Amino acid sequence: MPIQTSTLPAAAARALSKEEIQRYSRHLIMPEVGMEGQLKLARAKVLMIGAGGLGAPLGLYLAAAGVGRLGILDFDTVDSTNLQRQVTFSTADVGRPKAVAAAERLAGINPTIRIDTYRTRLTSENALELFRDYDIIVDGTDNFPTRFLVNDACVLLGKPNVYGSIFRFEGQATVFGYPGGPCYRCLYPEPPPPGLVPSCAEGGVLGVLPGIVGSIQAMETIKLILGIGEPLIGRLLLFDALAMRFRELRLRKNPACPMCGDHRTINQLIDYEEFCGIRGEEAPVMTTGIPEITPHELKARLDRGDDLFVLDVREPHEVQICKLKDGHLIPLGDLPRRVSELDSSREIVAYCRSGRRSADAVQFLQQAGFHKIWNLKGGILAWSDEVDPSVPKY
Ligand SMILES: [Zn+2]
C-alpha cells in the first residue's frame, strides 16, 4: 500500500546546520533519505506511549535519527527488574521517573531535537489532547486497556499507530490506524478475559526481544515519516525468537469494525478498564469469595506450630529462586491430576509469586471438595515485604 505522505507535515524550509549535515551524513548520502528526507525527520513529531522495553530502542533510534520532536509518556519509575531489557536506563536511574531518565539519555544522544515528557497515565480524558500535537503514535505499552485506548484515539484523530507487543520469546508488530488500513479492533474486537493473558511480570520476557520488536517499530516509524518502502499496514509481523523465524499474517480491515468500519458505533473514548473488565495497571487477583490468609497471620500460625499444609503452586524453576519453608510443590497445571496427594481433612495454605495462581488453585480445590483452604494474600512478594525481607522478590 502506498504511503500518503500528505498526512505528515511538509519538510521544513530551513536548511540543516553544518554540524547536522555531519551528524546525519550516513542518511544524507542515501537517495531514499537525502536532504529532503532528513528535513522530514526534523519536522516529524512522534509520541511514544511507554518508555519501557519497547520504548528503549524506539527512543534511542528515533532520537539518533533526528526525529525533531519526541514525546515520551510514562508515569512509572525505573525499577531494578527493568534493567534486564530497558537499556535506556542505567543502574543509577533506579527510582527515578522513566520519562525523565529516558529524556536525559536521549538528549545526550541528540541535543538538537526537542523532547517532551509526560509523567502521567494515558487516560480517556487526556489521550486526544496529547495525541493531537503528534503525527505518529507508537504503542509500547503492555496492557489491554491502554492498547484499546491508543487505538481508538488514533482512529478518531486519523493518526497512524505503530504497534508492538512482546511475550517471553515471541513478538508482534504492525501499523494500525493508517487511513484505509485496519485497526486494533479489526484484529481484536473484544478484549481477552481478564487474567487469561499473562503480563511480562508473570510470564517473563527475554531481554533482547523488546530490543528487536522496538527496533522494528522504530524502523516502521521512520519509513512512515520518509514515505519510503512497504510499511506494515495490513500485515501483522510475528517473530519467534527461539526458532528465529518471522511470519506474516494478512490483516484485513473489518467492515463491521465498531471503530473503523463502515458504520462506526464508537464515536468517543470510553472507560477502557471497565471494557477490559479490570481496574488498575496490573489486573487485580479475582479473589471474591476466596478465603485468604495474610503473610503475618500465616507466620504467626506457623510459629505456633499449627498443623498447616503449605502448598506451593509455582513451577519448579521458581522454587530455585526462593521458597517458603516446608512448602510442598504441586504446580498449578499439575493440580487436577495430583489432587489425590492432598489431604482434605488438613488445613491447606496455597501460595505462588503474587497470589494470582494460588487463588485459582484455591478455587479449583474448593470445587473439588476442599473446605479448609486459604490463599496466601499477595504471595511470596507480600511475604518478602511483610514478613521476611531476606526472601528475594522476582
Ligand atoms: Zn477497525
CATH architecture designation of the largest domain:
3-Layer(aba) Sandwich
Radius of gyration over all CA atoms, rounded: 24 Å
Overall number of structural domains: 2
Give the helix tally: 16
Q: How far apart are the termini? A: 44 Å
Helical coverage, percent range: 25-40%
What structural class is derived from the secondary structure elements?
Answer: alpha/beta
Enumerate the strands of the largest sheet in spatial order, edge to edge or round the barrel: 3-2-1-4-5-6-7-8
Description of the structure:
The protein has helices at residues 18-23, 25-28, 34-43, 55-65, 98-109, 127-132, 144-157, 184-187, 200-203, 208-226, 272-275, 295-304, 316-319, 335-338, 356-367, 379-386; strands spanning 45-49, 69-73, 114-118, 136-139, 161-167, 170-176, 235-240, 245-250, 292-293, 308-312, 327-329, 347-351, 373-376. It folds into two domains: 18-275, 3-Layer(aba) Sandwich (Rossmann fold), CATH 3.40.50.720; 285-386, 3-Layer(aba) Sandwich (Oxidized Rhodanese, domain 1), CATH 3.40.250.10. A hairpin with a 2-residue loop joins β5 and β6. It is elongated. Residues 1-12 and 280-285 have low confidence and may be disordered. With 394 residues, it is of the alpha/beta class. The structure holds zinc ion. Zinc ion binds next to α8.
What's the short story on this structure?
With 394 residues, the protein is an alpha/beta fold.
